[in-house]
Model the fold of this input.
Amino acid sequence: MKLSKSTSGKRNFHIETWHIKALFLMAYDIMAMSISYFFALWIRFDGVFSEIPEKYLDPYVNFLPVYIIISLVVFYAMRMYHSVWEYVSIRELMRAAIGSIAVSAVHIILITVFLQRMPISYYLIGSVLQLLLLLAARFSYRIFTSVPQLFGTDTGTHTYHKVMIIGAGDAGRMLLENIQKTRANKDKVVCMIDDNPDKQNRYFDGVRIVGGRDDILHSVEKFNIDRIYIAMPSASKETIRDIVNICKETGCETKTLPDFYQYVNSGITAGALKDVSVEDLLGREPISTDMKEVYNLIKGKTILITGGGGSIGSELCRQVAAHEPERLIIFDIYENNAYAIQQELKDKYPKMNLEVLIGSVRDSRRLDYVFKKFRPDIVYHAAAHKHVPLMEDSPCEAIKNNVIGTYKTAYAAMVNNCSRFVLISTDKAVNPTNIMGASKRLCEMVVQSFDRKIRENKQNEIHRMFTHSEDNSVAYNDVPENVRTEFVAVRFGNVLGSNGSVVPLFKRQIEKGGPVTVTHPEIIRYFMTIPEAVSLVLLAGADAKGGEIFVLDMGSPVKIDTLARNLIKLSGLKPDVDIKIEYTGLRPGEKLYEEKLMEEEGLQTTPNKLIHIGNPIQFDTDLFQKQLDELMTAAYNNDDSMVEIVENIVPTYSPKRG
Done:
C-alpha cells in the first residue's frame, strides 16, 4: 500500500494493482485449502458424499474457518502475497512449499487434539493436494508464458531477430530470462556461447550452449544469427577485446552489457545493453591510480579548475568533487558548459561549496579578482583552444588563449602562493607540426620556466604580462619571498568522447548511412578515456615535485581507418558495401602519428608502471621571457607572421606549409 500525508496531517491509504491481485490470490488459497481437505475425505470414502460419516465431516466444517485464518496469517507473514507473478523463482517455490507444509502440520495437530482424529489419508492427501494447488497458482503465469519458448513458436506476428548470447553465467541467464519474458522485445535467443567446457552442449532455460569463442563464426552461420549480445560484465578488457574482434567478422550487430559495477546496481535487462564502444576495441584495462593519495591532497582544499565546462575540465570537476574539497571553483568563458556541470554537481553534491565563475584566462583583472577572493590551493589549468584545423586558420588566437592565458593564470597562482599548478598538455606538443601543438609546447615551457625561476629564488624576475596599458595599474600582490607553488604538466593523447573526438563523429556518420570520413588510410593515434586522463592529472598534482612533464604509457596506437571499419562492422554493416569510407586528406597542421616524448627527453619511472616523467629540456629562461613579450605583442597585433615567430621560439616546431 502507498502511504501519503493529507493536508490535515493524516495518512491516506491507496489501493494499488498488486493489492487487488493479492486479494484474488488469497481467495484462491481459501478455495484451494477448502477443496484439498474435502477432496481427501471424499476420496477416503470412495467418492460418495453421503458415505462420509458426520464424525469426520463436522470437524472438517467446524475447523475450516479457523484453519483458513491461521493459514492466511502465516502466508502473509511469509510474504507469499508480495511476489511479482511474472518473475517468480525458486525462492518463491521454497517459500510457498514451506508455508504449505507448516500450516498442514498445524492442521494435523489442532484438529486431532481439539476435535477429532481424522483418517491418515485425510492428512496425507489433503496436505499434498493443498501444496500442489498453492504452487500451481503461483507458477501458472510462468508456465503459460514459457509455452511458446518450449515449442519454439513466436508469441505474435512480429519478425524476430535471432540472438546469440556470449556468456552463460549469471548475467547471461538474467539477460536470457529478460528477453524471453519481454513480449515487446523483438529478439529471440537461439544459442549461447561459453568457454567453460562443463557448460557446453547443455541447455540454459531451453537454449543450447553450442560451444566456446572458437565456435562463434560457425554458429552465427549455422543459426542465421542477426545480433550478438556479450553478457560478460566482469570479464577483463583483454577478453572482451578478443571476443569483440571475433564478433566484428560476423557482420552481426553487436552489443555488450555495462561493467560489473553497473550490472550489480542496475540489474540485467535487454535495455541495459549498449553498443560496443571503442574502449572494448582497445582492450586495455583502465589506468589505476592511488586515489587515496589524491584524496589526501584535495580534501579540505580550495580547488580552481579553468576550462571547467569542457570535456576534460568537467570530468576534473566530477572527480575533484568526489574527494571532498573545501571549495570547488569552476572558471570558464562558455556559460552553457559551465551551467551544465554546475547543475550536475549541485544535484550530486548538494552540500558542496561550489563556485561557478564566468571569465577568460586572458583577462588579468578577472584572474586577479578570483585569486584574491578565493585563494585557491591547487589550480588545474584545462582552459585552451584545442581544435587543430581551426587554430591553423587563427594562429594568433591559439597564442592569446593558450600561451598568454596559461602565463597569466600561472602568474596569478604564483603571486597568491598556490601550492600546485597543473597544466593539461597534449602529445601534439611533441615535435609539433601545427600551431595548436606548438602553443601547448610553449605552455609547457611557461610552466618549466616558472618552476626554474622559483627554484633559483629568482621569482621576482618573472614579470607580469598585461595586454592593455591600463592593466599595468592593477595592484597585484608583491611576489612572496618564499614562493611554494609547484608547477607541473600532464601530457596525454586523444581522449575518447571528448568534444571533437573522432569516435562520436564516426557513429553519427554510420547512423546517417555514411559516408564515414577518414583523413588518411595510415593515420594512427593513441587513445585513452576521459576518466583515465583526469585520474592522471590528479595523480600529477599529488606526486608533483615541480617542473615535471607527466606522460602516460598509452599502449599501442590505433589506426583510425581500422577503428572506423570496426565500428561499421559492429553496427552489423559492411565497410565499403553498406557504408562507404572516404579519405579526405590530412587537414592543415595534421600529421600521421603523434609522439609522447621528444628525442631529447628521457623517461623516469613512477610507482605506477604506466605513468612516466619526462626530463625537462633545458632552454634559456631569460631569453624565453623576452620572446614571450614579443609573441604577445605580435598576437594582439594579429601579425600574419605568427607561425614564423613561434617557429623561432620552439625549435622542434616544423609547420607544414602548403
Q: What stands out?
A: The longest strand covers residues 187-193. The CA atoms of residues 191 and 445 lie 59 Å apart. The two ends are 75 Å apart (CA to CA).
